[in-house]
Amino acid sequence: MTPLLSVQGITKRYGAHIGCADVSFDLYPGEVMGIVGESGSGKSTLLNCMAGHLEPDAGKVVFDTRANGPKDTVTMSEPERRMLSRTDWAFVHQHARDGLRMGVSAGGNVGERLMAVGERHYGNIRDKATDWLERVEIDAARVDDRPVTFSGGMQQRLQIARNLVTGPRLVFMDEPTGGLDVSVQARLLDLLRGLVRDMGLSAIIVTHDLAVVRLLADRLMVMKSGHVVEAGLTDQVLDDPQHAYSQLLVSSVLQV
Amino acid sequence: MIELKDVSKTFTLHNQGSAVIEVISDVSFTVSKGECVALTGASGAGKSTLMRMIYGNYLTQSGAIRIGDMDIVQAEPRDVIALRREVLGYVSQFLRVVPRVPTLDVVAEPLRAVGVSAADAQERAAALLAQLNIPERLWSLSPTTFSGGEQQRVNIARGFAHTYPAVLLDEPTASLDAANREVVLSLIEEAKARGAAIIGIFHDEAARARVCDREIDVGRYTPGMVA
Q1: CB spacing of A240 vs B113 below 8 angstroms
Q2: Where does residue A78 rank: exposed (0-12), middle (13-18), buried (19+ CB within 10 A)?
Q3: Which of A5-19, A143-157, A184-198, A240-254 is predicted least confidently?
Q4: Is residue B12 part of a domain?
Q5: Which tens digit of pLDDT belongs to each residue from A14-43?
Q6: Does A232 lie at the interface with B, CB-CB under 8 angstroms?
Q7: Which of A39, A59, B55, B226 is most buried by a 10 A CB count?
């Protein structure tokens, strides 16, 4: 089987400082991978390099495109990469405000991505947008309200609806449950897991919440100072961590 | 079906003076189809550790653990995931679920994962929950608020929903009353009858005597602990 995403030797430096160094892995269709590590360990840098938001200094990000098979997205032309990020890719930001247009209605936020891929029938767009609002458990009556009137949890779910409406195959998530209260987190986890299963999504989730990765991710990568110090099955890394830093990370979690 | 060959395991505690603890050394045994084998030994002998090594959530330092055609010690994570989805079931002592998911869906999930339709999976889940005496009014609630015994039965129902060819059971009858214990034992007997290879840890001696064909004393393989 061809990996959906093959990351090869991604390195990003900020001057003399290392963002992330020589990261390689393959992600297969339907797999969810978690990336954990302390603040400043390079998780978000790596995610942004993979998603095309940052240009890596070295390395390849090979994505199995629908039309042309595996292609390196780092050397791809800008229009091609933009097309990819509107169709097969999705990016869920930690702060919903970064991923939404706050001045546009909820329906408009979801519909915009559809229009970007060529949908023009207003009725269809509105129907699809309403359908997706319901799928992420936002009352359809709020379709014309602007996201500024939504709570943090609702904004996050709206961001997910906006991202998934075009049926992407790969979703990048940066702390998708960060800053939400625990009951909303549980709801979002349930929602994400259902979507991953039903749509056959692959996802890369950056977080520092180990409970979240245990429930969502099949595989886990632990980063420290820009390097991957350990990688493997999620429950293996959490139950039997091998590296000193992973052991510290796992043993530092407070029991509820 | 399950074959262990010269399997050893050590824990290295980097943050506690790099202490190295040898837990298990040179275990070899096989479990055939339709056979149930009990792991025995005192507390701390490494029964659960060995079981987790077979499931793949503990790394094995040396040796081979073959389940069907796959050596879980060498396998890639995605192969282990596929193995766990289709071949290898595990009933742990603790229920770990996404909060808010109804019990019926928790039990149906392993079937959904192998491609069974939602309706069929729920039907099978409902039958198992009824058999394990979980009242129907609880099925639509999340098991996170259930009592210990109820959670354990949900866990068992989940572990037996899909007919795995290999099953690992970690104290499946602990904290169950006589009636439910009987149900669990009959589920194990059914699984054996359809040809599943089973490895179990049972502190309940009568249960062990009834369903297990052989016993393996893990204490014999524990360095520094003479059984």
Answers
A1: no
A2: exposed
A3: A184-198
A4: no
A5: 998 999 999 999 999 889 999 999 888 999
A6: yes
A7: B55
HEC string for chain A: CCCCEEEEEEEEEECCEEEEEEEEEEECCCCEEEEECCCCCCHHHHHHHHCCCCCCCEEEEEEEECCCEEEECCCCCHHHHHHHHHCCEEEECCCHHHHCCCCCCHHHHHHHHHHHCCCCCHHHHHHHHHHHHHHCCCCHHHCCCCHHHCCHHHHHHHHHHHHHCCCCCEEEEECCCCCCCHHHHHHHHHHHHHHHHHHCCEEEEECCCHHHHHHHCCEEEEEECCEEEEEEEHHHHHHCCCCHHHHHHHHCCCCC
Q: How far is A141 from chain B (nearest CA, A)?
A: 24
Q: How many CB pairs (< 8 A) connect A and B?
A: 55
Is residue B98 predicted with pLDDT exceeding 90?
no
Q: Residue B14 and residue A233: Cβ atoms within 8 Å?
A: no
**Residue A47 Cα to chain centre, angstroms:** 8
Checking if the pLDDT of B182 tops 70, the result is yes
Is residue B226's pLDDT more than 80?
Answer: no
Q: Output phi, psi for B173, to 5 deg.
A: -105, 0
Q: A197 and chain B: CB distance < 8 Å anywhere?
A: yes
Residue B94 DSSP class: S
Residue range B118-144: average pLDDT?
Answer: 94
Task: Confirm or reject contact between B117 and chain A (CB < 8 A).
Answer: no
Specify if B110 maps to a domain.
yes
Chain B residues lying within 8 Å of A214, measured CB to CB: 96
Query: Looking at chain A, which residue has its C-alpha nearest residue B19?
Result: A244
Token pair, residue B158, equals 């989940």
Query: What pLDDT was estimated at residue B224?
Result: 67
B36 within a domain of the structure (yes/no): yes
pLDDT at residue B103, rounded to an integer: 95
Please, which pLDDT band fits residue B227 given cuts at 50, 70 and 90?
Answer: very low
CA of residue B62 relative to chain centroid, distance: 22
Instruction: List strands edge to edge, sheet with A227-233.
Output: A89-92, A170-174, A202-206, A32-36, A219-224, A227-233
Confidence of residue B225 (pLDDT cuts 50, 70, 90): low
pLDDT digits (tens, 9 = 90+) for B67-94: 998 999 999 988 999 999 999 999 988 8
DSSP-based three-state secondary structure for B161: helix
CATH of the domain at B194: 3.40.50.300
Domain total of chain B: 1
Nearest residue of B to residue A240 by CA position?
B58
Does B176 fall in a domain? yes
> Which residue in B has a C-alpha nearest to residue A252's C-alpha?
B15
Domain that holds residue B200: 31-59+76-221
Q: What integer pLDDT is reported at residue A21 of this predicted model?
A: 93
